[in-house]
């Protein structure tokens, strides 16, 4: 008895099994984050610092150009939102973005369904895939130069339209205030639809063929199969792509700047190009920061909807 008591007295305390198991689970959970923490901290600082600085600049007047900028609060936002050029840029951005998103989805869906058809030979489908994807692999600079040449008054587009008798005079596609925004939107749609075609095609190939066979047995025609099977099955993909495309297009800068520069007479001015001009043409960095914050907030609102949609899908 005395030996047993001595052994018990000298033995260290043993943690309860449940507490030890909980500690192991915590270490297993935290260990990967411990290794990743330096990278996470650096990325957080690099991403958060520009946002904080730009937001701070938007609250002061004449930042960068003066040593002691004056705090003006929200006055820059009032000035910008009442600026006629910014209002024009915002309206152009919405028209450009919404039209691009809708046409990207419709054209992408149409070509994806054609490439998914069993009526075309495999060789033809492979050739079409290669041809249709070409606009997507071109950089914005190449797309801009290509369409500037084609839409030139002496370019191939006017030549073809005059040859077939659709027009009787040369049209200034990118120099007309009435046609420039539509022409620019068409170029953006042409350059971006292959991504949507490929993504939707992947979704179509994931739809079970049994659903279509059962619908045919029930007498459903092509339109009814499209409406009751294809579109509901593609709904998660289409919604996700629409929200992502909205974010991409509302921030579009390179294609607009290289093609028209926001002209003529602000006809194709977007928030992105106007933000750039405020900073590097007018040197109004405070107003440029304000415009950047507004664009950032608009993008974040759509991004939050996208994240919620993704979580809801899970």
Automatic annotation (TrEMBL):
The keyword Transmembrane applies. Residues 90-306 form the ABC transmembrane type-1 domain. The chain crosses the membrane at residues 33-60, 94-119, 131-150, 179-204, 285-307. It is found in: Cell membrane. Signal peptide: none annotated. One of its GO terms (cellular component) is plasma membrane. SUPFAM superfamilies: MetI-like (SSF161098). It is a multi-pass membrane protein. The keyword Transport applies. Residues 1-22 are annotated as: Disordered. GO terms for biological process: transmembrane transport. Keywords: Cell membrane, Membrane, Transmembrane, Transmembrane helix, Transport. Pfam families: BPD_transp_1. Its main location: membrane. InterPro entries: ABC_transporter_permease (IPR051393), MetI-like (IPR000515), MetI-like_sf (IPR035906). Gene3D superfamilies: MetI-like (1.10.3720.10). Residues 1-11 have a biased composition (Polar residues). PANTHER family: ABC TRANSPORTER PERMEASE PROTEIN (PTHR30193), INNER MEMBRANE ABC TRANSPORTER PERMEASE PROTEIN YCJO (PTHR30193:SF37). Belongs to the binding-protein-dependent transport system permease family. This is Carbohydrate ABC transporter membrane protein 1 (CUT1 family). It comes from Propionicimonas paludicola. The lineage of its organism: Bacteria, Bacillati, Actinomycetota, Actinomycetes, Propionibacteriales.
